[in-house]
Amino acid sequence: MSAIASSLISLSILFVLHTVNFLTFETEGLFLLTPLIIGTAELILSALAALCVFTRPSVNTAIPATVLLIVCTIWTAVGLSNISEEITPKLYGRNISVEAYSQRDVVLPGHGVLVLLFVVFSVCLILHNHKKDLVVFMFASSLLSVCVIINTWTNLKGHSLLFLSLASVTAYVSVRAALEHFTGDTHTKSSDNKTEFDDKRVMRYALNILSFSPWVLYSCTITKNTAISFIWPLASGLFLLLHGISGMRRGNITVSTFSIVDGLFWGSLGGSMYITVIKGYSEILFPAVSVPLSTIFLTIAVVSLHSEILLSLEYVFLSGFILTLTFNHEVSLATFTWICFVLYMYGYIAALLKSFSFKIQLPVGQNVISKLRQKFRRQKIFTENKVDIVSSKNVFESDSMLGFSKYATLDNIGYVSNIISVLSFAWVSHETTVLSLPWHLIFGCFIQFVVGFIGFSRGKTFESSFFLTFASFWSIWGSLRSLDLIGTESGMSFGVGLSSFLLVGVVFLGMSITVSKTWIGISFCFVLFMLATLLQVLGISDGFIYERTAAVLYSLSLFYALLSSTFNLSLGREVLPLGKPILQISKITKYNDQILWASSRKARGVKEIADKLKAGGICGIPTDTVYVLVACCHHPEAVERAYKTKKQAEDRPMSLWISNFKQIEAARHEFSSLLWDFLHEIWPSNVSVVVKRGEWVKSLGLGDSEKYVGRSDSIALRIPDSTITCHLIDQCGPVTVTSANPTGEGDTTHHLQVLAKLGMKMCDGILCDGPSRENAISTVVDCRDIDNGKLGFFRIGLTPKSTVLGILNKLLEKRSTKNGDSHMNGSVNAAFDTEM
Hints:
The chain is mainly alpha-helical. The protein has helices at residues 3-26, 35-55, 62-92, 104-127, 132-150, 159-183, 199-219, 231-250, 253-279, 287-303, 309-327, 330-355, 368-375, 393-396, 411-427, 437-457, 461-482, 491-512, 517-537, 543-571, 587-590, 603-614, 636-643, 673-682, 723-732, 751-758, 801-819, and strands at 596-599, 618-621, 628-632, 655-657, 687-692, 714-718, 735-739, 765-768, 779-782, 790-795, 825-828. It is built from 27 helices and eleven strands. The protein has an eleven-stranded mixed beta sheet, sandwiched between helices.
């Protein structure tokens, strides 16, 4: 069943449950559910509905997924409210009245924002002529929210009818989505398929607007207490975190990173607001968190100026909101609240207008600085004489993100999280130490475990180990400090635990000399911080002074690493150096000046490798399978050099890779129409196609090196299913390819292995992309007898034989109406006559 249908079914069950509960209440029945039970059900069902969408994202379902996630956020918040209404007085014994949870301070902010968001969304959907069932669903949800809002002033009846109507609409939409999924009828009269909906940006703005709602209504004197509305920033923050991490897997790097940063802040702030309610504190934030956090947000604002002015303004005024919230200046707080709310609302409308391609667009200042800089930059045009190269200049005008990645690196998030965690650990006042608990659990524990595990998947063993150590420390000792459980009477017991972290820090300090000088500084400051904390736990006089001093040094070292990584990543060049390691054991650092190491994650890195190839170099690059060694066709000497990297090279002919069919246009008149159509159907993929050699090969500019590519009567062609590889070939033209390993050795599955296996003399540059997408071979198909309906299989790899034969069968069926019945006999190499 589709993710949308599954999500809707969970929500419909939730609405039916509410229908029964309100019917019982209105008829004074015996089975009225308590707030704890109904809240738990709301939390579980809304979480299940959201997970259905998060775990199975799809471009085709981006619009309904965004609507459902907003609804799930609302009901998650309502569930948290119902649960806290019952358990808070029991756990803490404070006189927190039940009425406080039923007033407008709790429900009005979120439900009011839901109506506003859905009205704007519905208008865009209607004007763009999208499916009306979503509009009906949003109208029913908005009507229910309006009734909930009105009920805060007067006691309305008929909630059961509203929930029943919403349950009916949700069930209808879920059935329709399920039928479309099973029948494959996803094409409707609407223009859904023509819309590239920016769900990540729309969702980020919607959840930020929801987070600001308690202060917006408070500034208008509609509500009297913002802390009691903790459910809205808390739920929004959690969903922003999940949405950002999910977006990382889909390649939405920039927006998803900002969603994670926003989610960390709102989730932690919502937790502090809840603690303020149960403890009766007058403050929500404390300077140890707000000052560094606002500084970090200002840094983000400066860095993001080159990409989008609106984004920069958002973080400038968000930092002001944080400071005014900390020092409780009501006039300034109201001012910054409304400025932020207007900015996020403007961005929400702008993202919707752009997603639906309306003629009226709201400017956000995207790439303004880059465009101004380009006006003063001399334009250079590259013209290729021998090969028709279709370049992607628009991609390379900016340092955009390219290619596939299960996750992008989150090191910057790790630096930010540690800065906040260490300062909240050491500088929070003793009277309000429990306020730091959410910041330790979310900033210190949750996100750093995520950063650490993602670091391992990206091949960053040292950094990921350090982040996992950080996460363990903040989850244990941060929680103990926040709950005020660390005392001198148990100093020896706690001292043993801290000594283990101190020992780990010393080990990391020794290892850091092989990484960079910045990491040496971070490791050294971490050891100092562990020593200072150990002195305080053991009751040493003035231990807290040493701890705070070490905390400042530690946070400064992390802040430098954050600045260095952020500026270097954003600008594509080293502005603030991380510093070379004292002991160079990594070949990347040891041979940094002798070989080109370029990042595949940025377009700049791909262009650098393309320039190296156009200059006659040979480079190791990632593909849709494993790493390969390539050379430009119009550099015969480079092709020969790449060919001779193999022992017994005559048994290892090179293949030819292209990125588009215009690059082999000269072969069009030599290939049959069936073969030409087959190539269009099979590519891009990990299938290499062996075709007859012809005069068209000479148009590639191979010259004397033509003998090294293919065999005397055939040549292997391929368009790889890799964005990175195709963008590279767009820039340098067709390339000759051989495996990036000596003859007889295993395939190369990581960029570090390329240099280890080939050595300095056999490689001029490496496009670094971490672990290979697949650790498997490609499929090689013999198409020289395709006009007789026959295919040969030299090798069966990732793509099964049945898939290839199925594609040819479909083509033959289309021709059978004109040429009579046609059938195919698959001629397969006996050694590979198995289905894989």
